[in-house]
Amino acid sequence: MINLKINNIPVSVKEGTTILNAAKQNNIKIPTLCNYPDLHINSECRVCVVEIEGRKGLVTSCSTQVREGMKIITNSPRVINARKTITELILTNHDSNCNACAKNMNCELQNLSNILGIDQARFPSVLKMEPIDDHNPALVRNPNRCIKCGRCIDVCKNIQTTNILEIMGRGQSMKITPAYGKYLSDESCTFCGQCASVCPVGAILEKDETDKVWDALHDERKRTIVQVAPAVRVSLGEELGLKAGSIVTGKIATALRLLGFDDVFDTDFTADLTIIEEGNELIKRVTEGGTLPMLTSCCPGWISFAETYYPEILPNLSTCKSPQQMFGALAKGYYAEKIGWDPENLFVVSIMPCTAKKYEAQRPEMRHDGKHPDVDVALTVRELGKLIRQMGIDFESLPDSEFDNPFGITTGAAAIFGTTGGVMEAALRTVYEVVNKKPLEKLDFTDVRGLKGFKETTVNLGGADVKVAVVHTLANARVIAEQIKAGTSPYAFIEVMTCPGGCIGGGGQPYGTTTEVRQKRLEAIYKVDGKMVIRKSHENPAITKLYEEYLIEPLGHLSHEYLHTHYHQRKKQKPKHKNVMATY
User: Fold this and answer.
1) pLDDT in the model for residue 24
2) Which member of 75, 118, 186, 370 lies 3.0 to 4.6 Å from 113 by CB, making a disulfide possible if both were Cys?
3) Can you give the pLDDT at residue 572?
């Protein structure tokens, strides 16, 4: 342990601790714009400077380790003046039209300016407005708001290993951009949105589609249908002021009805359906000699990654659509037929923890009739929060209500889809009982739970030990893909999720998602599972009825028509766009 003083307060911390973390551990706040939990960015913004007795210059607290006997001052006039000047200089090259920014009142630069008392511009603006990258279905990149903190580069390079964003230029002309100033859609971006999740300002955001939803809700010709993903029930509360990990399932259903949706359904239903189809597909591949290991296909960011970087492993992907897209196909097929409604006048909205779901919804493969998208709009958790605030709904005081039928009866197995390891555990609960023809003694597969990036376990199926694995983040997905390419993968079944923690850490979740927050959401997901009356997908009576009434059998003709798809190599596109200023 190292003994030191911070603001004349005796402090003892572990050797190797930075001044920033030492202060944080002792409830002393040092502001920063580049440092972020789980990332490795240090000393880019210089806002976290502190004074050390005996040192001539100020030092950055995020990159300076404590030493025995240090005397640190975090709030001297010299320090405060330096922080204020640094922040003012950042503002000179920043689009400060805050009212037009989606992160207004939720912006770290804005908050810091308020804390430092910056209420007028001492230095003239040097900002040269640049075009906004608005050319892909999921993300908007606004270089005029970028403060060059480097968070987006770090998450893209070290956590996702896609290296889409880089620093270009030097000095005042330095910018963060895809190589050669291209658009995100011109590069091999998977649209996971992790860059948007960690951005302290409004430089990278999801593409806002709330106006499309309002238009549909007020169109008397449209029947509006909404589905809610598993992870949303443990994260929307945060977006609306509740504690991390708050379970708000019933409040969500009530809020969506107040917004005006005609049918409020649960994506958990098609998560259960995914397990039936995917589980049977796995059994068929194992027993009939199909391509192994089989890889999950629920995550669109992972699918894009495989299509772009590892087309050799596309035969390993499950042909199942994601629960979002299964729902859309059934809504405009089975459900439209059931209620006698023209599918062209059904407007399907999904509430997702993910920005890549916007891209997935617009894929040409996801159009059952070949013309219209099965899911019309995919909104993030942040966008749903915006709709609820716009309507003036007091979310915390809302009573609970149930989802509508037939897509409202769900299981605990479907709920855990929202976290890394959940799809695997849900699949094993079903596959084990189908193959071994006996009930599980213990439903919880704890070996595949938790936030460890790479997990594995062995399950006995039909007398044979079968190895399975779970990975999250594209860095770990790359390891799995390389093993498969080399023919050394020992697994029969692998779950892959793009975002850290799976959907609970998705790029469309509330800002401020850290490992600590992910852990609270994960624990909440398993609480939801534990309280469910039915915890196995194959015991969902509504799923059984769907097969009896419509689909006939898993992997059958109608199942393939509605619930399965194909994937193909996705090449880098050549730039097609003119450098025209966009407004957003």
Assistant:
1) 96
2) 118
3) 55
Catalytic residue among 101, 146, 189, 298: 298
CATH 1.10.10.10 applies to domain 2-75? no
Distance CA 500, CA 198 (A): 12
Report which secondary-structure segment, H or E, holds 153. Answer: helix 151-154
Active site residue 357: yes
Active site residue 192: no
| Contact assessment for residue 465 and residue 458, using Cβ atoms and an 8 Å cutoff | yes
Is 561 in the active site?
Answer: no
Provide CATH code, domain 98-206.
Answer: 3.30.70.20
The closest alpha carbon to 425, from 440, 437, 411, 413, belongs to: 413
pLDDT for 578: 42
Confidence of residue 580 (pLDDT cuts 50, 70, 90): very low
Q: Which of 148, 321, 357, 455 is catalytic?
A: 357
Confidence band of 252 (pLDDT split at 50, 70, 90): very high
Task: Give CA–CA dist 378/369, Å, rounded.
Answer: 19
108, 209, 238, 278: which is the annotated catalytic residue?
278
Determine which one of 48, 503, 536, 537 is catalytic: 503
Q: What is the pLDDT of residues 397-413, one digit of tens each?
A: 999 999 999 999 999 99
User: Residue 244's Cα: distance from chain center in Å?
Assistant: 15
Q: Residue 248 burial (CB < 10 Å; 0-12/13-18/19+)? A: buried
Tokens 């249908």 belong to 225
In this predicted structure, the answer to whether residue 581 has a pLDDT above a threshold of 50 is no
pLDDT tens-digit readout, 29-43: 999 999 999 998 888
Annotation marks residue 187 as catalytic: no
Q: Find the mean pLDDT for residues 3-9.
A: 97
Q: In the sheet where 263-266 sits, what is the strand order?
A: 263-266, 223-228, 346-352, 377-380
Show me where the domains of the chain are located: 2-75, 98-206, 211-563
**45 catalytic, yes or no?**
no
**Is residue 574 scored above 60 in pLDDT?**
no
Catalytic one of 365, 402, 482, 553: 365
CATH class of the domain comprising 211-563: alpha beta
Residue of 304, 318, 322, 537 marked catalytic: 318
Structure-derived torsion over alpha carbons of residues 353, 356, 358, 362, reported in degrees to the nearest 10: -150
Which residue among 187, 281, 307, 383 is the active-site one?
281
- Residues with Cβ within 8 Å of 361's Cβ and at least 6 positions away in sequence, in order, are 137, 324, 325, 328, 350, 373, 374, 375, 376, 377, 378
130 is catalytic: no
DSSP run (H or E) holding 493: strand 493-497
When mean pLDDT is compared across 177-191, 220-234, 283-297, 447-461, the lowest value belongs to 177-191
| pLDDT, tens digit, 9 for 90 and up, residues 135-158 | 999 999 999 999 999 999 999 999
Is 281 one of the annotated active-site residues of the chain? Answer: yes
Q: What angle do CA 70, 72, 75 make, to 5 degrees?
A: 175
Stretch 116-120: mean pLDDT? 93
Cβ–Cβ under 8 Å, residues 484 and 473: no
